[in-house]
Specification:
The chain has about 140 residues and is mostly helical. The protein contains five helices and three strands; from the N terminus they run H-H-E-H-E-E-H-H. It has a three-stranded antiparallel β-sheet with strand order 1-3-2, with helices on one face. It is globular and about 40 Å long.
Length: about 140
């Protein structure tokens, strides 16, 4: 099994496990909206935060194609520019677009319904992934 397929299956399984209790307990308050209808919801703002775990990272998600330093430092793991999907002035990992309903994140970005914020961090990082998770989850807690 290739790494990309394993990550996809793992993400789908995890999402199913996390959503199952809510779906099973849901009564009439659950309404699912098809992807192609979402853009017609005027004034409905949604914040979606994607935290990447494992072997993927920001530089292989939004790719600095054309930057020779990226390819020098990521020999063997950098996404080649000819495989990256150009969207306006950025390059996306093809896994964000290809084989996904409505072209996935590409269409949302082109329609102005997606913003990409890279390099989120905090002061004085100590390089501990565990400490970062605690700090970032505290920042995201809503009243």
């Amino acid at each position: 099994m290739k790494r990309r397929k394993f990550i996809g299956i793992s993400a789908t399984t995890t999402a199913g496990i996390l959503l199952a209790p809510k779906l099973l307990k849901a009564k009439n308050d659950l309404s699912l909206i098809p992807n192609d209808k979402i853009q017609s919801l005027e004034g409905d703002n949604v914040l979606i935060i994607i935290e990447l775990f494992g072997g993927n990272d920001g530089l292989n998600t939004i790719i600095p194609a054309g930057d020779s330093e990226y390819y020098n430092l990521r020999k063997g793991i950098g996404i080649p520019e000819n495989l990256a999907v150009k969207v306006n002035d950025i390059y996306m990992n093809p896994a964000l677009v290809e084989g996904i309903n409505n072209e996935g994140l590409k269409r949302m970005f082109e329609d102005g319904r997606l913003a990409i914020v890279e390099g989120i961090g905090y002061d004085s990082p100590n390089m501990s992934h565990f400490r970062k998770q605690i700090i970032m989850s505290d920042c995201l807690k809503v009243g």
